[in-house]
Amino acid sequence: QLQLVESGGGLVQPGGSLRLSCAASGSTVYYNHIGWFRQAPGKEREGVSCISKRDGNTDYEESVKGRFTVSRDNAKNTVYLQMNSLKPEDTAVYYCAASRLLRSECTLDRSWYANWGQGTQVTVSS
């Protein structure tokens, strides 16, 4: 069984930064990609970014390109999401999830992700 735990959320002013972490434990050999998703109140959960474990290939949702950076430390089984220039519309619960999708490119399609963390709240407000 694979467990994922997010951390690093909090309250930040517009223009500020946060770094989220996603620590994997348990059956860590059984995933190929980690994705970051977010869900704001009244909205559907959307893909934000993803990274492949083996090749480090990444993908980003259009609204976060140039502001968010995803990275991995395979030795620690941890994936990070560095979020800069945060905006109020980035406010949401952020989740990380694991996918076994067998290809080098990761996906932002949440239907490919079977294991999810509990989420961490990010609030961007002055």
Q: What key attributes describe this structure?
A:
51% strand; 11 strands; mainly beta; four-stranded antiparallel β-sheet; seven-stranded mixed β-sheet; 0% helix; 126 residues
Short description:
The protein is mostly beta strands and 126 residues long. It contains no helices and eleven strands.
Structure report:
- The chain has 126 residues and is mainly beta.
- Helices cover 0% and strands 51% of the residues.
- Strands 2, 4, 5, 6, 9, 10 and 11 form a seven-stranded mixed beta sheet that branches. The chain has a four-stranded antiparallel beta sheet with strand order 1-3-8-7, with no helix packed on it.
- Strand 7 (68-73) and strand 8 (78-83) form a beta hairpin.
- The model has no long low-confidence stretch (mean pLDDT 96).
